[in-house]
Automatic annotation (TrEMBL):
Biological source species: Bacillus safensis
Gene name as annotated: sufU
CDD domains in the record: IscU_like
Protein name: SUF system NifU family Fe-S cluster assembly protein
Coiled-coil region(s): none
Domain of life: Bacteria
One Gene Ontology term of the molecular function aspect: transferase activity
Length: 148
């Protein structure tokens, strides 16, 4: 039991670190721009990404929202940079499955993102955690359709 308590504490610390010290905060020029919001709680995000040769070469975000939403965006942008778009989208599916409490493919190391798995216990917060990932999916779709 103490292992789980310590793990929960560590996960909370990772989430708060990404919230207080977000990685990749800002806007990229000449990039795919995706604006998303969660009307239920007011979280909003602008994701900007550069995709070249089917690879996410850079990603940044800005917005406002709860610690889970902003930490998730920080973790997501950090995780997808340098990945091919197919892998980034697979990570998004894995994250979605994790948030829904489903069995998920653990063949890709999610790193800090695993700290968010406890959010699955709080259904009202799942949309907070997945907002930036939905923006990634929308941005990848725009790239596929030549709307970058």
């Amino acid at each position: 039991m103490s292992f789980n308590v310590n793990l929960d504490t560590l996960y909370r610390q990772v989430i708060m670190d990404h919230y207080k010290n977000p990685r990749n905060k800002g806007v990229l020029n000449d990039s795919i721009v995706v604006d998303m919001n969660n009307p239920t709680c007011g979280d909003r995000i602008r994701l900007t990404m550069k995709i070249e040769d089917e690879k996410v070469t850079d990603a940044k975000f800005e917005g406002e929202g709860c610690s889970i939403s902003m930490a998730s965006a920080s973790m997501m942008t950090q995780a997808i940079k340098g990945k091919d778009i197919e892998t980034a989208l697979k990570m998004s599916q894995i994250f979605s499955d994790m948030m829904l409490g489903k069995e998920y493919d653990d063949s890709i190391d999610l790193g800090d993102i695993e700290a968010l798995q406890g959010v699955a216990k709080f259904p009202a917060r799942i949309k907070c955690a997945t907002l930036s990932w939905k923006a990634l999916e929308k941005g990848a779709s725009a790239e596929d359709n030549g709307k970058s």
